[in-house]
Design goal:
Length: 123
């Protein structure tokens, strides 16, 4: 009987852990991020959409992603996907004014928010 009780607690703990992990990786729309940038500043988020512009120099670069609700610049140190690619990208939201230590950004990225890429994958 006690073994059954411990099994039940272990099952509930596993379910709770799974829910917390999945909710922490929740995908956000670009409109949500831009509507309340202070809420997402310096936090890891995932957005998905289509690459509409990209710039790359020596494996580093920036690309703009459009999810249908808005556009957001993504800064990458591991290369950029081609224009037209459908991707999901995870990274940290930062104020673009503070990106000078990463790379020299294209003029359109010189103000506003940007996502510092941690990883991206094709969708």
């Amino acid at each position: 009987m006690q073994k059954s009780m411990y099994s039940r607690y272990a099952l509930w703990a596993a379910i709770l852990f799974t829910v917390l992990i999945v909710s922490g990786c929740e995908q956000k729309s670009i409109n949500e991020i831009k509507a309340d940038p202070s809420r997402y500043a310096n936090r890891e988020v995932t957005v998905a959409g289509t690459v509409v512009r990209s710039f790359s120099v020596l494996g580093r670069g920036a690309y703009e992603i459009d999810d249908g609700t808005g556009k957001l610049w993504v800064v990458s140190e591991t290369g950029v996907p081609r224009e037209g690619a459908k991707i999901a990208v995870t990274g940290t939201i930062r104020d673009a004014y503070n990106l000078g230590s990463f790379i020299k950004l294209p003029e359109p990225v010189s103000s506003g928010l940007a996502l510092i890429e941690k990883s991206h994958k094709a969708r």
